[in-house]
Amino acid sequence: MATISAGSVASYSSQTGFVTKYRPLSMHFNASKTHMNFIDLKASSSICIQSDASLLGKGSIAALQASYLPKLKFKPGRLPAKQSQPRASAFKVAVLGAAGGIGQPLGLLIKMSPLVSHLNLYDIANVKGVAADLSHCNTPSQVIGFTGASELANCLRGVDVVVIPAGVPRKPGMTREDLFNINASIVKTLVEAVANNCPDAFIHIVSNPVNSTVPIAAEVLKQKGVYDPKKLFGVTTLDVVRANTFVSRKKNLRLVDVDVPVIGGHSGITILPLLSKIKPFVVFTDEEVSELTLKVQNGGTEVVEAKAGAGSATLSMAYAAARFVESSLRALDGDSDVYECAFVQSDLTDLPFFASRVKLGRNGIEAFMSADLLNLTNYEAKALEALKPELKASIEKGMAFAQK
Ligand SMILES: NC(=O)c1ccc[n+]([C@@H]2O[C@H](COP(=O)([O-])OP(=O)(O)OC[C@H]3O[C@@H](n4cnc5c(N)ncnc54)[C@H](O)[C@@H]3O)[C@@H](O)[C@H]2O)c1
After folding, report:
1. Ligand 1 centre and the CA of 96: distance in Å?
2. Pocket test residue of 185, 208, 241, 297 for ligand 1, highest count of atoms within 8 A of CB
3. What phi and psi, each to the nearest 5 degrees, are found at residue 272?
4. How wide is the angle at C-alpha 55 spanned by C-alphas 49 and 59, nearest 5°?
5. From CA 137, how far away is CA 48, in angstroms rounded?
6. What does the pLDDT read at residue 89?
7. Interacting residues of 284 by C-beta distance below 8 A, sequence separation 6+
8. Which residue spans adopt a coiled-coil conformation according to this UniProt entry (predicted)?
9. pLDDT at res. 48
10. 374 CA distance to ligand 1 middle (Å)
11. Which of 155, 187, 312, 315 to mutate to test the pocket of ligand 1 (most atoms within 8 A of CB)?
């Protein structure tokens, strides 16, 4: 266990060559580059770190450690031999729907990333106050609020990553499909603006139903002649976050060790956690597989019902979306070891879009982790076949809407 005392460490991270490299199941330090998260988020007097559990997934704990490096007593061999100059925060991120339940905490989490130089917040209302509020956090990025269609182009110009959580959330009794009528138009309009102003950006679609909104976005980008399938992502990170959490609780595993690929789509039975592909290797009974699979599939509904009309998952979603943003920024920054699950154009199955683990690089998706789909259990193989008709229908509905 390392005990870290918090002291006056502001801007320390911009002077160290301390590095976190992100691997699916491990973390190590490297003096050649700097990928630190959450600098200047100062805790009270001391922080005890008992494990590698982290704020935004594996690796982030290293960022926290880096923030407190001056006071940290490292074991021999863990400090970089030579410290190099890190690169400055470099990336522009825009959040569309930034005044909402997801948008606000997501903005806060992105504001904490040292990789971000500019954070542009867009909404149809109430976003200037959110921007003013966030701008007082003493982290490097500059925050600007943009309100309404007339300011959307300025919000998007030169942006590297666009996150879209705009739209209405579910109420009890609704499925994600029920949101289609409203959110389809919102996503279509916003992606048109992305195509016009920052066609090279990574696009993260959070707005539901993701199974349809991603195909809508793809069609819009095609119509505009700027579609790059390697850079369009439906954000399914929350399914992975939930799967990791539920499995680690059930099997009493350290969270940092747990990595469950979740494939398919992002709605009901289309969400398929592959428990046979979990790391570390764990044996599940048939009952456990079916209980955990259902719990992950119903995670969103559990929150919708608990909120009883006040919306759907916002905080865990912001956490998950921020993790995906951070992964994208690390990939853009040249980290060659970034893997995430996402709902993307894919030829892993006979469906045009499919969620799977992908390797991210500077130009978006570099590889699909096709091995995850090999040697599935009977349960998983059946569930995969069962989800296809529903997922296909949602994809086609989205494409048809955008082609209208
Ligand atoms: N992908 C996932 O895992 C996941 C998880 C949870 C929620 N969601 C989805 O995320 C979306 C947002 O959820 P929320 O809880 O933040 O909702 P919310 O109602 O709290 O916030 C939505 C925000 O979008 C804004 N908005 C509406 N129309 C807009 C437009 N045309 N342009 C820009 N902004 C616009 C609203 O003003 C509001 O601030 C919903 O569709 C929800 O279903 C996705």
Report:
1. 9
2. 208
3. -130, 100
4. 80
5. 24
6. 63
7. 251, 275, 292
8. none
9. 31
10. 35
11. 312
Structure tokens that stand for 80 in this block: 């970089």
Count of Cβ atoms closer than 10 Å to residue 381 Cβ: 12
Nearest CA to ligand 1 atom 22: 100
User: Which tens digit of pLDDT belongs to each residue from 91-149?
Assistant: 999 999 999 999 999 999 999 999 999 999 999 999 999 999 999 999 999 999 999 99
Question: Which residues have any ligand 1 atom within 6 Å of their CB?
Answer: 96-97, 99-103, 123-125, 165-170, 179, 183, 186, 190, 206-208, 210, 235, 238, 266, 311-314, 317
Torsion of CA 154, 155, 158, 159, to 10 degrees: -170
Give the closest residue (by CA) to ligand 1 atom 27.
167
Written as six digits, the tokens of 105 are: 């905490």
Helix, strand, coil % over all residues of the chain, rounded to 5:
45, 20, 40
Model-level pTM? 0.84
Question: What three-state secondary structure class fits 273?
Answer: strand
Domains of the chain in start order, with CATH, are 2-83 (no CATH), 91-236 (3.40.50.720), 237-396 (3.90.110.10)
Phi then psi for residue 377, to 5 deg, are: -70, 165
More confident residue, 149 or 85: 149
Residue 287 has pLDDT above 60, yes or no: yes
Nearest atom in ligand 1 to the alpha carbon of residue 207 is 41
Centre of ligand 1 to C-alpha 213, Å, is 12
Among 38-42, 137-141, 144-148, 187-191, where is mean pLDDT lowest?
38-42
The predicted model gives 13-23 an average pLDDT of: 30
Closest CA to 20 of 52, 71, 76, 62: 62
pLDDT digits (tens, 9 = 90+) for 340-363: 999 999 999 999 999 999 999 999
